Amino acid sequence: MSLSVGIVGAPNAGKSSLTNTVVGSKVAAVSRKTNTTTHEILGVLTEGKTQICFFDTPGLMLGHHGFPHRDVTVRVESAWSSVNLYDLLIVMFDVNRHLKM
Ligand SMILES: Nc1nc2c(ncn2[C@@H]2O[C@H](COP(=O)(O)OP(=O)(O)O)[C@@H](O)[C@H]2O)c(=O)[nH]1
Ligand SMILES: [Mg+2]
Predict the structure, then answer these.
(1) Dihedral, CA atoms, 35, 84, 28, 62, nearest 10 degrees?
(2) What is the pLDDT of residues 19-49, one digit of tens each?
(3) E strands within 1-101?
(4) Which of 10, 61, 62, 71 has the fewest CB atoms within 10 Å, counting from its CB?
(5) Distance 57 CA to ligand 2 centre (A)
C-alpha cells in the first residue's frame, strides 16, 4: 500500500525538518533562510508492505492582500496546485510565532 502526504505551510514553519525526521535521513535542506526548498522534495518511508511518500513543498507565501508576492508567484502557484495531488495534507504552523503575545 502506498500513501502520498504533502507537507505545506508558511516558510520556516519546520516542514523540511519534519520531512527529515519522519524519513530518518537528511533529504531536505533545513535553513533559517526562507525559501531554502525551491521545489518539491520526496522522502519515502517504507515499513513492510506500506510506503508513505512525503512531499516537502516550498513555503506558501501570501502578501497582505492574500496574494503571492510577484517574484514568487510561479513557485507559490505550483505549490498550491499540487495540493490536490496528495492523499493527505499536513499543514504546519509555527505556533510560537503565531501565538506570541
Ligand atoms: N526551535 C525550533 N526550531 C526549529 C524546529 N524545527 C525546525 N526549526 C528551525 O526552523 C528553521 C526552519 O526550518 P525548516 O525545516 O527549514 O522550515 P521550512 O522552511 O518550513 O522547510 C531552521 O532554522 C530549523 O533549524 C523546532 O521544532 N524548534
Ligand atoms: Mg523547507
Answers:
(1) 20
(2) 999 988 888 888 877 766 666 788 999 999 9
(3) 2-9, 41-47, 50-56, 88-92
(4) 71
(5) 7
Which amino acid residue places its CA nearest to atom 19 of ligand 1? 12
Q: Where are the domains of the chain?
A: 2-99
Listed in sequence order, the residues at least 6 apart from 59 whose beta carbon sits closer than 8 Å to its beta carbon are 9, 10, 11, 12, 13, 15, 34, 35, 37, 79
Class for domain 2-99, per CATH? alpha beta
Q: CB neighbours (10 Å) of residue 23?
A: 20
Closest CA to 54 of 2, 101, 7, 1: 7
- 74 pLDDT higher than 90: no
Distance 56 CA to ligand 1 centre (A): 13
Residue 66 Cα to ligand 2 midpoint, Å, equals 21
Ligand nearest to the CA of 61: 1
At residue 66 the predicted structure's pLDDT band, cuts being 50, 70 and 90, is low
81 or 49: which leads in pLDDT: 49
